[in-house]
Amino acid sequence: MKFTCEKEILYNGLSIVSKAISTRTTHKSLEGILIETYDNMLKLTCTDLTVGIETKIPAKIEQEGKALVQGKIFSEFVRKLPEGEVKFTFEDYNVHIDYGYSSTNLQTLDYADFPSIPTVEEDNEILIKEDKLRSMITATVFSAAIEESRPVLTGALLDIKANEAKIVCLDGYRLALAKEVLGDNYKDTSIIIPAKTLIEVQKLLVSNNTVKIFINESHVQFIINETKIISRLIEGEFIRYENIIPKEWDTQIKVDVDDISRSLDRILTIANEEGNNTVKMAVYEDKLSMSTETSLGNIHEELDISINGKNLDITFNIRYIIDVLKHLDADVELLNFSFTQSSNPCVITPVEKDDFTYLVLPIRMY
Fold this sequence. Notes:
Blueprint: E1 2-6, H1 7-17, E2 32-38, E3 41-47, E4 51-58, E5 60-63, E6 66-70, H2 71-79, E7 85-90, E8 94-99, E9 102-109, E10 126-129, H3 130-140, E11 155-170, E12 174-194, H4 195-203, E13 210-215, E14 219-224, E15 227-232, E16 251-256, H5 257-271, E17 278-284, E18 287-294, E19 297-304, E20 306-309, E21 312-317, H6 318-326, E22 334-339, E23 346-350, E24 356-360
Antiparallel strand pairs: 1-5, 1-7, 2-3, 2-6, 3-4, 4-15, 6-9, 7-8, 8-9, 10-13, 11-12, 12-24, 13-14, 14-15, 16-20, 16-22, 17-18, 17-21, 18-19, 22-23, 23-24
């Protein structure tokens, strides 16, 4: 196989697929990136057997073929090449690279050992704009569990009914739900996608084009421009999230996003030094009082709010509140905090729209 390709184009393609390089494997092929000629282009493929990523890039093909390069080394070397066209010649488990007046030889792997990527039939497509999907993932995926003791919670539920799509993540302490209206009606679909997969999908959502989603019994496939991401689904039954979110409240306050973000950031400076990530909140009259105390000192902040309902004292892990503030859409200015009792979850929603819901459990103080 022989081809010439712009260094920057090739490196960008390698960067996309290398996210699926296996970091813990005894199979060398899973550390590789498969390069194939494809309709006068190059197709780059990588997989860790859970997620597979394919992308296509333009190149000048002199001789067709395929080869398996050592993913990390090859990508890093290409990154360090000078700008401009680079010529690659693959022969006998070796790639000869010509750039300017210089050249390099690198060993390659046996492409026969590279596993095939599962195929997902491209019918019954689900269409969603990139910016909408990016917003949904950003607003939810940070709430997925990291520990794998309960695999279902390491995933994100994609729940589609008629013309509405929801993504839901929860880790046992908090829940994040984002929803978007789709441009068409679809049959009811409910699948659990690894949160890590959605993080990689999110990185590719940089325009306002349409994303195509295809689903079968065991896999989901996202097509984003010239890139495909194919991922295994997580088996199991997701928690019935509708039953967790309170439908009624005794106290509701409206808070300015910038105000509470700045206050909590200052409070975290004190609380974080000893790992004491608690913030005590008190709602009374038209004020929200927030405080914490450690051996380093104490801090007390008050914000003007709008209140409807009873006064309330409640304590949270400050990081769980800051997390949601970090992942809000930039146009959200006001939030509703809805409470029932100091021992029950708080529900946070934007005042201006109803496309996002965040639930967080309080800390019980004795």
